[in-house]
Design a protein that fits this description.
Layout: E1 5-8, H1 10-15, H2 22-34, E2 38-42, H3 43-50, H4 54-65, E3 69-71, H5 75-86, H6 95-106, E4 111-113, H7 123-135, E5 142-144, H8 146-149, E6 152-153, E7 156-157
Parallel strand pairs: 1-2, 1-4, 2-3, 4-5
Antiparallel strand pairs: 6-7
Helix pairs in contact: 5-6
Length: 160
């Protein structure tokens, strides 16, 4: 069985070092290490971590070493993000947030994981992004926080 491909945005990497989010972000990284999921990052993530603290850059490098799939921005993703703007889902000010979603949709990721509850992990936004995706022939993108995706809670493993 093919393991689920999970696109992670920069907030998940930074979340590894945030008291509020560390348990679940680090749990997801453990899942990647165990081979439960295939991590996906992008050139948008790479650009965003450039100015981040060293620990965030080190965690990003760790994901790359784990064999994270790396997505480059292409015309399809740009066009999809522009369509999100035309549908007024978000304004051009949040282009990077839209590019995360567009890249994951174009690459047919199974899940996009983020801690961005305002622009990404938000019920109304998810419905609108997926409506546009369907209109343009892309499959539905599941969008969650790491808390809903990781197999780790505290120190025990959840069995399916």
């Amino acid at each position: 069985m093919k393991k689920p491909r999970i696109y992670i945005d920069t907030s998940v990497i930074g979340g590894c070092f945030d008291k509020e989010f560390a348990k679940w972000s680090n749990g997801l990284v453990k899942d990647f290490k165990l081979g439960n999921f295939q991590p996906i990052v992008s050139e948008i993530v790479a650009a965003e971590v450039e100015g981040a603290p060293r620990c965030v850059n080190d965690k990003y490098a760790e994901l790359i070493e784990l064999g994270a799939e790396y997505l480059e921005v292409d015309g399809y993703a740009v066009q999809l993000a522009e369509t999100y703007v035309k549908h007024k889902i978000l304004t051009p000010k949040y282009t990077d947030d839209m590019m995360h979603i567009a890249l994951a949709a174009v690459a047919e990721a199974n899940i996009l994981v983020s801690w961005n509850f305002k622009h990404i992990v938000h019920y109304d936004k998810i419905r609108l992004f997926n409506a546009v995706n369907a209109e343009l022939g892309y499959r539905e993108l599941q969008i969650y926080s790491p808390r809903e995706v990781t197999n780790y809670e505290e120190d025990k493993r959840i069995q399916y």
